[in-house]
Amino acid sequence: MAGYKDFDFDFDATQQGAxxxxxxxxxxxxxxxxxxxxxxxxxxxxxxxDEVPAERPGIRFSVTAPxxxxxxxxxxxxxxxxxxQAEALHRLAWDQPHATEHRFHTIVxxxxxxxxxxxxxxxxxxxxxxxHPIFLEPDQLAEILQGTTDWVPLTPKPLKKGQESxxxxxxxxxxxxxxxxxAKAFGHPPLRNxxxxxxxxxxxxxxxxxxxxDAAELxxxxxxxxxxxxxxxxxxxxxxxxxxxxxxxxxxxxDRVFVQVSVAAKPFVPAHLHxxxxxxxxxxxxxxxxxxxxLGGRTTFSA
Length: 303
Fold this sequence. Notes:
alpha+beta
């Protein structure tokens, strides 16, 4: 079963990679700075109404002498660091304020700008708690520091008939569109129960399809395991599945384990329905036996 792991879905690794790239780019910028312009990297903050903070936390870099760069820290309290921030800056070995320099600062040789770029990254993440470089606002060179590039639009390919969208007028209209697609796929009209659900047998389980009253969504679901023994154990197993699964959401309802896939239906795209049905069928028939054994339950049908 395809999962997030196939795409290296690791939030911590993603953050670390982004900060690593930011540090490299900042080092490149600092190494070629001159005295004609300073660089200020501020922490983005939400704006309440028309109120714009006069001084946002961040770091300012200036070439204060030939071949020398000075970095200054701006804190949360009108440019001054809070006591907690001051303690963290001291821990990171920023130079302390003194009689001639009233801010936390550091001075480095421009040829050795790498450690300063690393110090800046550590300060932004550890002192100001910035999660990702996207939450930074450089006053210049943002496209370089954030790694953005111009988007080149692709030449669109013509859609096949099943990939074109249709806007259903209501739930009855949507159900008719679904019935038409399922009849083409299975060679006969689908059977609906009193609740309007379509039932499809897939190996050792059943897949059900239901439209929502507002015709905005199609919900495909399947009961994978019945008579689950031990809810706590089941919740742990399903939580792991939800983290790893690319398609489908797993849930425990009373003593049954369900998997569900939702398909947006306004507009309705036949290809999306077929894709969801294939994915859910593969999940349902692919793991229900192993899941039933793990959770001490049974599948819908004997294989």
